[in-house]
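Support request from a user on the community tier.

User writes: "When I paste my structure tokens into the form, the page sometimes reloads and wipes my input. The last time it worked, I copied everything first. Here is what I submitted, just in case something in the input itself triggers the reload:"
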């Protein structure tokens, strides 16, 4: 069976070798890279722009960005017929290839995030390593933790005021440097789509900018949702009798901190949402005004066949409805969580409409193709390119975040940065 034949439905005149080759994993690819970039931009609001009120969620989003980073290439590896060749992009950079730029940018961004986290958590590494060193009854797990945190210090045990001030300057520099790299990490995905001259829906110079703005929206929205979930778990734990042993603040303190962080972060979320909607509508108006040769079939796809997906699900449920939710007076945590979920859905539908919608019409301009998401896997290919493959990509960063949080605690740590 030809790749794509299992989930492609053809209508009217479609060439025999035409299928929807790029399926759900290629939708997940720009979606996940966008979450990485958006989470890092949120952390930079504190480290670069000095928004002191976002200190806690900035550290949270920076650690979460590290958990999202390895998952950014996971959809591509699942989509490839020969996934073991994927390492070639990382090991053999090619400076004239758009897709090979991923290896260069991804490696650079990974080093920036890892370095910034090291400077942020260096006092924690030092304090933990020294504490474990003085414990004579460490045990097997204690010995492993001692070796781990001793290695993470990289031999730098100086936690004087002067040393910490240098760490803060390094964090600010790396965060400022990471913003354009994070934007390029996701913007180049839009660049790849926008440079495909053979596809009328993708070929637009606004595609990279649209991808970047929507990436920041999705990243901030996911951080808000994850932050709310973790804070709710902490509030439940704070009601337990052994709260003092767990080192948790009181329920009232947690609730107050949660509301303030969510309200302030929501303001920036709405700002980026307005920018993303404006660019998307500008691109749509520009296409209709210029009305190039391919506009006839594009108009049928946009305004007829995919009208519900674009104007109801993406713009209505994913943009307009959450905008109303956030702008209504008296924003609560539950409303913020609902609005953030809807924004994530809107960005996902935008990626879906770009990737799948861009393949919905034939190169003959006289036929259409529909994508049927495989819900129940019948073989390895329908698992990777179906619902369970997409769910695997979604769940993986949360598993990584759980283990990273054991080494870099986002709440218990009381650092200077």
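"...and here is what came back when it finally went through:"
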């Amino acid at each position: 069976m030809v790749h794509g034949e299992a989930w492609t439905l053809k209508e009217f005149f479609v060439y025999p070798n035409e299928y929807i080759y790029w399926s759900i994993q290629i939708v997940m690819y720009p979606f996940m890279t966008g979450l990485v970039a958006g989470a890092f931009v949120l952390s930079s609001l504190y480290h670069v722009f000095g928004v002191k009120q976002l200190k806690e969620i900035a550290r949270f989003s920076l650690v979460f960005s590290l958990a999202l980073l390895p998952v950014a290439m996971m959809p591509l590896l699942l989509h490839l017929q020969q996934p073991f060749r994927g390492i070639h992009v990382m090991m053999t950079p090619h400076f004239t290839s758009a897709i090979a730029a991923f290896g260069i940018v991804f490696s650079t961004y990974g080093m920036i995030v890892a370095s910034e986290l090291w400077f942020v958590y260096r006092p924690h590494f030092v304090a933990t390593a020294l504490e474990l060193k003085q414990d004579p009854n460490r045990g097997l797990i204690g010995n492993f933790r001692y070796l781990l945190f001793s290695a993470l210090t990289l031999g730098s045990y100086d936690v004087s005021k002067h040393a910490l001030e240098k760490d803060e300057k390094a964090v600010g520099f790396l965060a400022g440097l990471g913003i354009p790299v994070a934007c390029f990490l996701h913007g180049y995905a839009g660049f790849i789509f926008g440079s495909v001259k053979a596809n009328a829906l993708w070929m637009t110079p606004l595609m990279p900018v649209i991808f970047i703005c929507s990436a920041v929206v999705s990243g901030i929205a996911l951080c808000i949702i994850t932050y709310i979930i973790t804070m709710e778990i902490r509030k439940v734990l704070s009601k337990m009798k052994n709260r003092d042993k767990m080192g948790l603040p009181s329920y009232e303190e947690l609730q107050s901190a949660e509301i303030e962080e969510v309200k302030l972060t929501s303001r920036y979320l709405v700002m980026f949402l307005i920018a993303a909607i404006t660019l998307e509508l500008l691109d749509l108006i520009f296409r209709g005004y210029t009305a190039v040769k391919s506009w006839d079939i594009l108009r049928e796809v946009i305004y007829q066949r995919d009208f519900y997906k674009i104007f109801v699900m993406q713009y209505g449920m994913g943009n307009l409805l959450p905008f109303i939710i956030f702008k209504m007076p008296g924003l609560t945590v539950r409303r913020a969580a609902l609005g953030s979920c809807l924004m994530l859905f809107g960005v996902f539908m935008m990626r879906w409409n770009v990737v799948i919608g861009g393949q919905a019409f034939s190169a003959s301009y006289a036929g259409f193709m529909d994508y049927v998401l495989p819900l129940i896997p019948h073989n390895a290919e329908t698992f990777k390119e179906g619902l369970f493959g997409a769910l695997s990509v979604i769940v993986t960063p949360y598993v990584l975040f759980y283990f990273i949080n054991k080494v870099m605690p986002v709440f218990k740590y009381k650092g200077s940065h």
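Agent notes: The reload is a front-end session timeout and is unrelated to the input. The first strand starts at residue 8 and ends at 12. The radius of gyration is 23 Å. Escalated to web team.
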